[in-house]
Amino acid sequence: MRLETDKKILGQIIRKYRKMKNYTQFQLAELVGLNEKQISRIEAGQNYPTYITFAKLIEALEIKLEDITSQDKENPKQNIENILKNSSELEYSMYFDILKSVKSNLNLIKKAF
Fold this sequence. Notes:
The chain is an all-alpha fold. The protein folds into 2 domains: 1-74, lambda repressor-like DNA-binding domains (434 Repressor (Amino-terminal Domain)); 75-113, no CATH class.
């Protein structure tokens, strides 16, 4: 499910920026008015922050919104793994057929140049 993946990715981003600032979960929690457990759950991808908490987090951690929205582009391998993690056998089969076709077309394009 995409929402579960999004929660985990958001948690990873928050953890990454918290560590870059050398904040503990407790310190970040105090800055944004939460308790340490709530920060832990957000970072673990178990909970979404509320809109107000999200605004406080990005302000406290000095995260630009474009940094969050560009995360999907920065790690395509991880994103593919996340998509595949919760896929059915039918979806695997469809993904494989699509990738095979794309790969074949990329090879043809390479040969043309």
